[in-house]
TrEMBL record:
<feature type="transmembrane region" description="Helical">
    <location>
        <begin position="292"/>
        <end position="311"/>
    </location>
</feature>
<keyword id="KW-0812">Transmembrane</keyword>
<feature type="transmembrane region" description="Helical">
    <location>
        <begin position="381"/>
        <end position="403"/>
    </location>
</feature>
<dbReference type="Pfam" id="PF07690">
    <property type="entry name" value="MFS_1"/>
</dbReference>
<keyword id="KW-0732">Signal</keyword>
<keyword id="KW-0472">Membrane</keyword>
<feature type="transmembrane region" description="Helical">
    <location>
        <begin position="55"/>
        <end position="76"/>
    </location>
</feature>
<keyword id="KW-1133">Transmembrane helix</keyword>
<feature type="domain" description="Major facilitator superfamily (MFS) profile">
    <location>
        <begin position="26"/>
        <end position="408"/>
    </location>
</feature>
<feature type="transmembrane region" description="Helical">
    <location>
        <begin position="178"/>
        <end position="199"/>
    </location>
</feature>
<dbReference type="InterPro" id="IPR031305">
    <property type="entry name" value="Casein_CS"/>
</dbReference>
<feature type="transmembrane region" description="Helical">
    <location>
        <begin position="149"/>
        <end position="172"/>
    </location>
</feature>
<dbReference type="InterPro" id="IPR005829">
    <property type="entry name" value="Sugar_transporter_CS"/>
</dbReference>
<dbReference type="InterPro" id="IPR020846">
    <property type="entry name" value="MFS_dom"/>
</dbReference>
<feature type="transmembrane region" description="Helical">
    <location>
        <begin position="96"/>
        <end position="118"/>
    </location>
</feature>
<dbReference type="InterPro" id="IPR011701">
    <property type="entry name" value="MFS"/>
</dbReference>
<feature type="transmembrane region" description="Helical">
    <location>
        <begin position="28"/>
        <end position="48"/>
    </location>
</feature>
Amino acid sequence: MHTALPASRAQTQPWWKEPNKDQWRTFLAAWVGWVLDAFDFTIYLLVIPEMAKEFGVGVTVLAGSITLTLLVRLVGGVAAGAMADRWGRKLPLMISILWLALCDGAVALAPSITWVLVLRTLFGFGMGAEWTSGATLAMENWPERSRGIASGILHGGWAVGYLLAAVVSGFVVPLWGWRALFVIAAVPALLVLPIRYGVPESFDREKALAERRARASLGRTDPVLLTRLAWGSLVMACNFGGYYGLTSLYPVLLKTELGMTTQNVSVLVTIVNVGMLLGTAMCGALASRLGVAKAVAIAAFSMLPFLPLYVGLEPGLMWLGAFAGGFFGAAPPGIAPLLLTSLFPASIRGKCVGLVFHVGAFVAAFIPTGMAALVEHAGFSHAQVIMAVGGLCLVAMALALALRPKSTLDEAPAEAPSPSLG
């Protein structure tokens, strides 16, 4: 664990000077893992039309693979959380990065759509494990004063990964096809070595075991814990619903209904993710100052007027809609690491954070498939379903935070980060 600076000194220096070298290395490991997670997940979204054409299937089938991936995230997140609470945060982080790389390399060689579906389903296990272990590792180590900003920057790593996927796909797919993207995605497995030897562990095994024994002596029924689990899962379901509603079929919209080239799609997706990178940091900073609920409400309701521009109803302003989609629409996920790690004590934090985050993903996993089905079978356009689903889920998340149960406002558990939820 880190050595805290004196309070007077910590308050007078810029937030980025407060963490020590070990804290920065730990945060960087979690951030890089999340960047890789995003790159590996979103390259699939970017090549759905090409894969559908090669394998002779509809978009709904390939969107169904997104659902399968997100469903298995729950299993990976819970398994990694249990490992993290028993053996430390670094081990599941390293295993998850290797797992993602192996699945990506295998997709590049997939002979049929069946193999793609199987491999992308297995991919979900590593995806769930990476976030759980990485977010817990980062938030436990970081100084309390700037955890809101760190939470936003950490989750903003997803935008960096998606941005890289958009840029790389714009160059690679026209020249070598979609399979080459998955070969590239397998390379970062080498990062496991510097994580293994250069990143300190945040986990105090003996203290966690003592806390676990103390909790067991009080019995298994804990109404406050159950309430936090249920409420946190609801917030995360709305969180994922808004993000997947806005982004999962966005490249399909651009390539099909709007007839854009791969390069043009790459430009707009890049703009979205530049906006997200800035927006998640903004939302995290606002959460530290105003509280999580107000930060999310500001982002969610600010996005609503930009939804028509985001889906191209005014073609000349799509760049503005794309930026707003990232800056406002994709900003609320930036509070997830801060919010969830604050709800649970250290002895069960990895398991509970993994469970809540990925139960939310499980619930939202049906959104991409449902949206594709509405387009193919109910006559709606991609633009209509993106605006409706994305907007409704963002508003629902803001309301869930504003109407939170009183038990989530209790004093935070010992050793947990303590943000304001108001």
